[in-house]
Amino acid sequence: MTISTEIISGADLWQRIDADGEGALSEKMGIEILEASPLRVVARMPVEGNTQPYRLLHGGASCVLAETVASIAAALHAGPDQIALGTELNASHHRSATSGDITAVASQVHGGRTAATYEVVICDDADRRICTARVTCAIRPRSKHAALDRVR
């Protein structure tokens, strides 16, 4: 397996992982991919609209952001004939956020043929750590997931 370190953005990203991104939870939450490669993905998400009843950033929103950036990186790592499926997510919430944006950076910890693991650091606009997560994705042949072909 050859790993590309090319940074991909915009529509090229979704084409590269053979997805359109439309209707995805990441779209509904306002996640914007800023940088993407198999080794590192950076994304931003607004706090507004992703809060719990106390108007603090919802911990689940941080988890969605973490799994999104790690899954995109794993999909790029896997290549066009395979898919990446999240199998484990562990998150520690360090502090709350009440406004502005949060930024997630996923860095590859392990990139194998059947699994990829990423450390995800999420910070607020003041560069204070909000959450640290670890996400593992299974890498599987696309052909085994015929249901995905019907969706396209």
Summarize the structure.
With 152 residues, the protein is α+β, with helices and mostly antiparallel strands. The chain is 24% helix and 38% strand.
List the helices and strands and how they pair.
Blueprint (H helix, E strand, L loop, with lengths): L9 H7 L8 H4 L3 E5 L3 E7 L12 H20 L3 E12 L7 E11 L3 E10 L4 E13 L4 H6 L1
Keywords:
single chain, 152 residues, alpha+beta, 6-stranded antiparallel beta sheet
What would you say this structure looks like, in words?
The chain is an alpha+beta fold. The protein is 24% helix and 38% strand. The protein contains 4 helices and 6 strands. The protein has helices at 10-16, 25-28, 59-78, 146-151; strands at 32-36, 40-46, 82-93, 101-111, 115-124, 129-141. The longest helix is centred in the middle third of the chain and has 20 residues, at 59-78. It is elongated and about 45 Å long. It starts with 9 loop residues before the first helix and ends with a helix.
Q: Number of DSSP strands?
A: 6
Strand order of the largest sheet: 1-2-4-5-6-3
Report the structural category: alpha+beta
Assembly level: single chain
Radius of gyration: 15 Å
The average pLDDT value, as a whole number, equals 87
Low-confidence stretches: none
SSE string, helix = H, strand = E? HHEEHEEEEH
Largest sheet: number of strands, sense, barrel closure = 6 strands, antiparallel
Helix content estimate? 10-25%
Shape: elongated
Please give the count of helices.
4
- Distance N to C terminus: 26 Å
